[in-house]
Amino acid sequence: MGAKPGALRYDKKMSDVTRASITNGIWLCRNCHGQIDRDETLFPPELLFAWRTQHENWVLRELGTQGEQMRHDLEMSLYPFLKDCPSIVQRIAFNKPTGWEWRLAAELLRYLNGPELKRLKNIQSGRSYRPQPRERLEELIDFILERTNVMGSVLRPLSNIFDRLMESFGPPGESGDAEDIFDCCILMRDILATSIDHEEILHFTRVPEEGEALLDILSDALGRNLVKLSDLPDTLDRVIALIGTDHGGTLENPRTITYNVVFDLPPDFNAKFDRELKRLERLV
Hints:
By secondary structure, the chain is mainly α. It folds into two domains: about 5-95, no CATH class; about 100-284, A middle domain of Talin 1 (Up-down Bundle). It has 13 helices and two strands, in the order βαβαααααααααααα. It has helices spanning about 15-20, 30-40, 45-65, 65-75, 85-95, 100-125, 140-155, 160-170, 180-205, 210-220, 225, 230-240, 270-284, and strands at about 5, 25-30. Helix 8 (about 160-170) packs antiparallel against helix 9 and helix 10 (about 210-220) packs antiparallel against helix 13.
């Protein structure tokens, strides 16, 4: 029977570019290839990756030279920070296919941010609940000001993180830094998590009737912007898709792609907030 390449399935969020990469490939006979494609439940992505890893380890152990085994062990030791990440993330770092820096960032962001973005979606759609203490009227102004301070502070580092991420990809023609890419993605995940914690507090804290209008104004003002971060992996995929095409850039004059994330507030946010805050101050 002839062998043919198949695609290892990580999950449905895996980009088309990563799915088609040799990093995500597995060689199977025609019958096994068809059987696996027909039954994703019996052959989940984790099992396919485990097969590939087990087979590669067997090949290295039984057929590899001592030098090849030492090289493998050294490569594994270089990326301890990826040990808990999905196999596709580890393989991109180990194998370093063309454009690996962008691919690594895209898959890391999907893996790290996916649960947090799902948590935000559940909050916004009313499918989750987390108990919060009730705020008393005399403490309500402090609570509101604390929430506005969080809103003003939590996103401030994002610009610097984006800049550092771009730097971690390395200059054109040079390899990037996998650990720096990982650190930047972790920092973005942490900011996202803190921001969604903030949204949970706003959605589920019970306040006196006098403060409900203020709470409504603040709720989702930050969350509605956070969903924009889900577009970043797809933007990186579009950059990767340019590799090997006539994109018009050269090593001396590389093509520049700009990615802008605009965080804005609802119309009349400041006016409405100031009006309700002054009304509350008169009541307290």
